[in-house]
Amino acid sequence: MPQTLYGGTRNRRVTVRDLALAKERGERWPMLTAYDAMTASVFDEAGIPVLLVGDSMGNCHLGYETTVPVTMDEIAMLTAAVVRGTSRALVVADLPFGSYQEGEVQALRSATRLVKEAGAQAVKLEGGERSAGQIDLLVRSGIPVMAHIGLTPQSVHAMGYRVQGRGEEAAQQLLRDAKAVQDAGAFAVVMEMVPAPVAAEVTQALHVPTVGIGAGHDCDAQVLVWTDMAGLTPGRLPRFVKRYAELRGALGEAARAFAEDVTSGAFPAPEHSFE
Ligand code: KIV
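A: This is the predicted complex of the input protein with 3-methyl-2-oxobutanoic acid.
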């Protein structure tokens, strides 16, 4: 009986081979982002098999407006924290903007740091055909790579936040991108904001798993940014997000209750004090 990726017991980390076997079995799996040890440990205990230390940390954790300013130092520090907080999940670290676009050697240097210094078991980078050279060298060097096509937020100033792969020509380009990263050795392909039928076609065409975010129902896996999924992110969220909790409201209420107890003198009570 094969060990499923989600559910069951597991006393070792998930590997990229486990993900390949899940695709063969037709098993769907969940992925979440994580940016700190404590939250990562919650997701690890919940059985999430893959955690992404995404450069979405820029918007969701570090207070930047986009992912563009995120640095290697920031990704490395938060990846190390997520690795320390987990024992089962495969931890994938994002290569931030500017850490791999110069070419294969720069990509290898950056990825090596995230694997060797921060403890990531894989890296993710954006781009299809244009990033195939980098993926090829990383994979030949022993570093598993997750690719990311469709909407690539590091290119926000060039492409905006718009659905990609619409229309026959764009859909064909998306398919070429997916095949190029698969041929270069990527173990999985994130597809962001792509029409569901196009994502379904790409998923059918690939032997490696696709991970959808705003890419419909037929991808092999689904990823969400954890602060969106848990209702911590303020304001309007993209249509593809489903909120599974309302943490922003709950935390705000906790903070207000604490403040009221302090100002009224109700906290600390005798049971919180030492004799
Ligand atoms: O940085 C990130 O969180 C991501 C996911 C949205 C796939 O790239």
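The chain has a mean pLDDT of 97. The beta strands are 29-33, 50-53, 90-94, 122-126, 145-150, 188-192, 210-213, 221-224.
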